[in-house]
């Protein structure tokens, strides 16, 4: 792989990075306050914990179904961008959909609104993110650049808009959705008009598809579910990342803004803190590949889970806004230390030709199954017992998942059926 300076001269890297930046910006401008919009009595819909859990659960179910389709189709397409263009098209209509369809339905016909939102948001964002990340990872291997260095621009995009999201939200939450539409439109134009990776950059049209020998069939994809080693990682993801996601997305925003004297102050501070956190996260996206080369894929993944546990438990034990803000910053370290190693784990221990399907099934799909099953029960648990006790339960589950992973995750030199991984010390020795 090349360094960042060389990558900046690589057109496919530049387009992949800009695509990541614009997609996460179009998503983050409203998603960072989505849970607050659902629950706020003054500036949102005023839903209770069980209703919010239902929204997230049905969203995850729709996302789950789409991920199988996205993974299979993208593995057939190789690095062609047809699906990515479809995703960007949907993101460009976020504002009109939320203003004229989604909000009225959630207020007057709740379940119909939940279903409509699940379809649109999953097609454009919740399943779309896994598709675009898998496509970017495939571009990185085909055109010789670090996936983490491209993915970090997505975090930068999220951070840039998060800085303004809180202030826009206190004016009118719909502004956030409309800004997301505008950014989505720019993303769509970039994907359609910029032909990076095509023959104009020295790559023949035939190179955009995978060879017949490496293109997986449906039977081969279904055969993945027969692999015991894949189920081991699926269980690990479900009991670590899934519980953490429910905590971070479904509960933490409202918990944090409730620590302040007024919701408006809490929302503005949350937006600024979220932006700072994501800027640090973006930086970590470029640093984590270096950490992996030093400690290995498996060790980096276990470190990420350990930080998850510390952050959730910390929020259960303190209620001072400054301390909770400091604890939230752990998310900037944990997310890259989980996402990048888990992707590399799949390409290390499984057939790289199935990377998109493996990522969809082994990480994204397993996480969504967990969200379908857990969002509503955990929302009801919060309604009955409050945030702190719920956080303690979630942190306990994540701790058990980390112990399970310590004993079940394969070492970097064990069952290497994909691209081998060498730590820096191994490179020096060879």
TrEMBL record:
InterPro entries: LacY/RafB_perm_fam, MFS_trans_sf. GO terms for molecular function: lactose binding; lactose:proton symporter activity. Keywords: Cell inner membrane, Cell membrane, Membrane, Transmembrane, Transmembrane helix, Transport. NCBIfam families: 2A0105, PRK09528.1. The chain crosses the membrane at residues 12-33, 53-71, 83-103, 109-132, 153-171, 177-194, 229-247, 267-288, 300-319, 325-346, 353-374, 386-407. The gene is lacY. This is Galactoside permease. The keyword ATP-binding does not apply. The keyword Transmembrane applies. It is a multi-pass membrane protein. It is found in: Cell inner membrane. GO terms for cellular component: plasma membrane.
